Amino acid sequence: MDLRLQGLKAVVTGGTKGIGRAIVETLLAEGAKVAFCARHGAEVTQVQAELSAGGAVVRGHALDVGDGDALKAWVAEVDADFGGIDIVVANVSALAISHGEAAWRSGFEVDLMGTVRLVEAAMPSVEKSAHPAVVTIASLSAREIDFASGPYGAFKAAIVH
């Protein structure tokens, strides 16, 4: 498949497992340079080694997107290292499915504010791109009351909005 991503530069949050890793792998297969982050350093190191083995340009970084200052610093570092950012994918989630104040705080800081901070930090670079794209990953729980009727669904709905 040719998505015309050759040479574009992307950042992806939550890139070591599941949907995030599939996004990183797809972007790399299409010839993009990719920087991804995830919370667990050992997983980040392992995934970066696996994905760069074929010569792809991939940079992993251990980061909790709930830490706004660290997230902004990482985006600035990627921007400088790659010479710009074309694609932003906000994928990470706290998976705050339980009820209670702690789940609401976690969902707010990670799902909602992690997305807001990522996009705001990358936007000055993305606005300069000839091929800009911002993608936010939500869930069916954003529009349907299901097992995740609390914080998870509410914050995914906010991201869609």
Task: Provide an overview of this structure.
The chain has 161 residues and is of the alpha/beta class. It has one domain: 3-Layer(aba) Sandwich (Rossmann fold), CATH 3.40.50. It has a 5-stranded parallel sheet, with helices on both faces. Helix 3 runs parallel beside helix 4 and helix 4 packs parallel to helix 5. The chain is globular, with a radius of gyration of 15 Å. The two termini are 31 Å apart. 40% of the residues are buried.
List the helices and strands and how they pair.
Blueprint: E1 9-13, H1 18-29, E2 33-38, H2 41-52, E3 58-62, H3 68-82, E4 87-90, H4 101-126, E5 133-136, H5 151-160
Parallel strand pairs: 1-2, 1-4, 2-3, 4-5
Helix pairs in contact: 3-4, 4-5
Provide a concise account of the structure shown.
This protein has five helices and five strands, in the order E-H-E-H-E-H-E-H-E-H.
Structural descriptors:
161 residues; 5 helices; alpha/beta; Rossmann fold; five-stranded parallel β-sheet; globular
CATH names the topology as: Rossmann fold
Helix content: 40-55%
Low-confidence segments, ≥5 residues, pLDDT <50?
none
Strand order of the largest sheet: 3-2-1-4-5
Whole-number average pLDDT? Answer: 93
How big a fraction of the residues is strand?
5-15%
- Kindly state the number of beta strands: 5
Order of helices and strands: EHEHEHEHEH
Largest sheet, described in full? 5 strands, parallel
Distance between the termini: 31 Å
CATH class: Alpha Beta
